[in-house]
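Students often ask why we bother predicting the structure of a whole assembly rather than each chain alone. The short answer is interfaces. A chain on its own may look different once its partners are present, and contacts between molecules only exist in the joint model. In this exercise we take two input lines together and write out one structure for the complete complex. Read the inputs first and try to guess which parts will touch.
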Amino acid sequence: MSPNLKDIREAAQRVKPYIHRTPVLTNESLDKQVGAQIFLKCENLQKVGAFKFRGASNAVFSLSDKEAARGVCTHSSGNHAQALALAARLGGIPSYIVMPNNAPLVKKNAVAGYGGQITFCEPTLEARETTLAKVVEKTGATVIHPYNDERVIAGQGTAALELLEEVPDLDVIITPVGGGGLLSGTSIAATELKKGIRVIGGEPEMADDALRSIKEGKIIPSVNPKSLADGLLSSLGTLTFPIIQQRVEQIVTVSEVGIIESMKYVWERAKIIIEPSAAVAIGVLWEKKIDLSGLKVGIILSGGNVDLEKLPWQK
Amino acid sequence: MSPNLKDIREAAQRVKPYIHRTPVLTNESLDKQVGAQIFLKCENLQKVGAFKFRGASNAVFSLSDKEAARGVCTHSSGNHAQALALAARLGGIPSYIVMPNNAPLVKKNAVAGYGGQITFCEPTLEARETTLAKVVEKTGATVIHPYNDERVIAGQGTAALELLEEVPDLDVIITPVGGGGLLSGTSIAATELKKGIRVIGGEPEMADDALRSIKEGKIIPSVNPKSLADGLLSSLGTLTFPIIQQRVEQIVTVSEVGIIESMKYVWERAKIIIEPSAAVAIGVLWEKKIDLSGLKVGIILSGGNVDLEKLPWQK
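Now the answer. The structure tokens for the assembled complex follow.
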């Protein structure tokens, strides 16, 4: 069942002791550049460097004592893996993370550093799911899906709740969309809190399955997409798709060049580190494919995990 | 005359409509790494990307109407030039900036972008001062020195005022020291607000004139220093030196390697962009030359202006 505003409010209370209340930044150069008044909700400054920590924390701290004792598990090589491992550690429970054996060393170390117990598998979806099933069989741990999970969606919605508390008169909120956890949680919080607010999803042109899903009225799976925005390669889920269908005004795609330019501009002017996936939300304004001029636009900067040794604007 | 706490409080009121109230961030990884509880006052997120905007704004908005009408001027190729140009623009008055003709294009563009009227000169101190004198003669503009100016020092002290409002029980505050404007303003605010608080200046080993000045009891000019921390190459001023002498516990030097490592760690973990000069304050903890273990340490991150095309940890 789709979470509602009450679920998001409860999630906010539940995760409050664990998360950072991230700042909302403004930047005059950016405003001038895109012709709108931007409010950056900095989830790149969240713990583990991503909004994912909100959803993972809400899931972990929603478990019954009996469930909690057996721990949590997931398969992921991204920010959700780190987020779940840290949330579990803060909850004093075990976490089991299934990772493809070709995951970058820095990601393995990060998960292990937060106390996640890693099981490696072949880098195919089938191997990941089979391995996860074995882990569940052995441990009895609760699977926490990175986005197709009510508790996770409600948790992700808490960022928009905070943003609208600080800037109640936003006209528009933009988030990036991959699996749709952030976008669906945001759309519930925003549309329930403020009648008429517009919620827009930013998606890489090169991984435009959400746009196509909305157009065709059914989930179109993402097939081997390639984009710098590597957090946005998943397909929508059975829970997130209908929420987005109902509450999101439109999905706007952003080119790879637009992603890089937006990312670099934010680094240069706002002095914060955002990952390509977060830049996609800025890209919606940057490329001016839709007219948001003069409006108050909230942007949820989803994360800041990048490899500082190779930046996309460097040869 | 040395500014006092009242001057800093007045400065805070004066600049409030113009500056960002910058966030104070915490980071558990950093705390573990250095063994203290760190509070990062993010002046890298200040307008023009540096605390300098506080001092420049206080100077501009302290002028009489008659003075203001004639504008302000300075010679600088750094953050102060941009800060003064923007403050003047916000005050609706002209600014005249003398810059060496070999200043990087990006800095010239930044100053011009904020409306500063640039006069170029040969890249020597003598040429800068002669040229500035000519500008003053012609325009009647008020010279705003980057640090040896009471209004500037009081303005810089407002960052510590905000930090101590949010975290009143700090044991220590660390700032970088170049000309000493930030360190002296901080030391006045901190020691007046909280008896027994320790104020420490971080300085590059390769530009250790403040350390030597304190040791010898007189201003030892910086002679052709070379450090990545290019905001910290100035000598102390006749106003800043005695304040630092009186109120700062000690100056701690940081190696170039320590500067780079601290800078990269903050980028990676805190997801914010700091310039090498700001990293020097972190470097004091990073290199553990003094024991601050277990203490609550406020750090003023002075700025975030870096060239994203060439980062110091890249070959």
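Check your guess against this: Chain B touches chain A through 23 residues (CB under 8 Å).
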